[in-house]
């Protein structure tokens, strides 16, 4: 698999800093100085494993770019870059399909740990997808059907849009029904043992999944909170 990263950042000095560190680590980079350029590039060339995406940009901001890129590709890894520390900005990014975030200013080691970690998850996801060509084509839970080869979810025959993380969470839950898992266990199984970040990312993705698949997200029937422990999937 190629190691290609689309770097979307309007400040040239920061963009250059990111590109230099990525290239030192063996990544091939393509640069975009604004949201319009990023969407134009991605619509023509989608052979990227990671998109590093600044939130605050003139014109089309990073949140809108994230939503459009996620609409075009459910599997690419997206890391948001933000100078803000408020959780609301991070949650907005997660709700549009981001996989992770880095708060500016950040050091080269932090940047590369986040990028390497997400790249490994994307790579593992693609390897698992190839293995599934020899596995059953679907996993079913009630009116929900996970199509393993196409990496898609249908509910009552209607296809639902999922991010890469959402798909991996559902695949894990479908494969382990009625079993309780802590946030740490979900982080390790889905995000990987080398994930560096806060465990609240689990709660954000659970909440996002509930909004998509539960008839009443405030009273979920499938993704059940086990108070003081974590979550489980109820069939």
Give a topology summary.
Elements: E1 4-8, H1 12-24, E2 28-32, H2 35-44, E3 50-54, H3 62-72, E4 77-82, H4 87-95, E5 100-103, H5 108-131, E6 138-141, E7 144-147, E8 152-155, E9 158-160, H6 164-175, E10 180-182, H7 183-191, H8 200-213, E11 223-226, E12 230-233
Parallel strand pairs: 1-2, 1-3, 3-4, 4-5
Antiparallel strand pairs: 6-7, 7-8, 8-9, 10-12, 11-12
Helix pairs in contact: 2-3, 6-7
In short:
This protein is α/β, with parallel strands linked by helices.
Task: Explain this structure.
The chain has 235 residues and is of the alpha/beta class. It contains 8 helices and 12 strands. It has helices spanning 12-24, 35-44, 62-72, 87-95, 108-131, 164-175, 183-191, 200-213, and strands at 4-8, 28-32, 50-54, 77-82, 100-103, 138-141, 144-147, 152-155, 158-160, 180-182, 223-226, 230-233. A 5-stranded parallel β-sheet has the order 2-1-3-4-5, sandwiched between helices. Strand 4, helix 4 and strand 5 form a beta-alpha-beta unit. The longest helix is centred in the middle third of the chain and has 24 residues, at 108-131. The chain is globular and about 50 Å long.
SSE string = EHEHEHEHEHEEEEHEHHEE
User: What is the CATH topology classification name of the largest domain?
Assistant: Rossmann fold
User: What Rg do the Cα atoms give?
Assistant: 18 Å
Number of separate strands: 12
Overall pLDDT level? 88
* Rough outline: globular
| Sequence stretches where pLDDT stays below 50 over 5 or more residues | none
CATH superfamily heading of the largest domain = Response regulator
Percent helix range: 40-55%
Q: How much of the residues is beta strand, in percent?
A: 15-25%
Total domain count: 2
Q: What structural category do the secondary elements indicate? A: alpha/beta
Strand order of the largest sheet: 2-1-3-4-5
Distance between the termini: 36 Å
